[in-house]
Amino acid sequence: MFQAIVKKQEIRRFNYKARYYEQGKADIRKQKILNGEEDTHVNFGDRFHQKISESRKVKRNSMKNLAVMLAILALLLYVVVKLSHIAS
User: Within its chain, how far is the Cα of 73 from the centroid?
Assistant: First the structure.
């Protein structure tokens, strides 16, 4: 009786078929879009998304650089404090 009340959910399945992807062609198209060489009305959206993607990459890289600098600074501060305790 309990099994009739509580039903087990079935796993959702998706019919995803991957398409062939050529990295070289994608890179060439990306550069053309960023340079504005393709002049169709559809490319405005592509160019917009590419520029947003590029700005996110720049921001991500700057955050990584900041984290590395802070880690080095913390390590340097730790070494200075340890050396000052040894000297005194």
Answer: 26
DSSP conformation letters of 8-68: PPPPP-----PPP--HHHHHHHHHHHHHT----TTHHHHHHHHHHHHHHHHHHHHHHHHHH
- For residue 43, what pLDDT band results from cuts at 50, 70 and 90? low
Other Cβ atoms closer than 10 A to 33 = 19
Domain ranges of the chain: 15-87
Alpha-carbon distance of 14 to 58, in angstroms, equals 34
Q: Higher model confidence: residue 81 or residue 48? A: 81
**13-27, 28-42, 71-85 — which is least confidently predicted?**
28-42
At 85 the pLDDT is 86
CA distance 58 to 10: 43
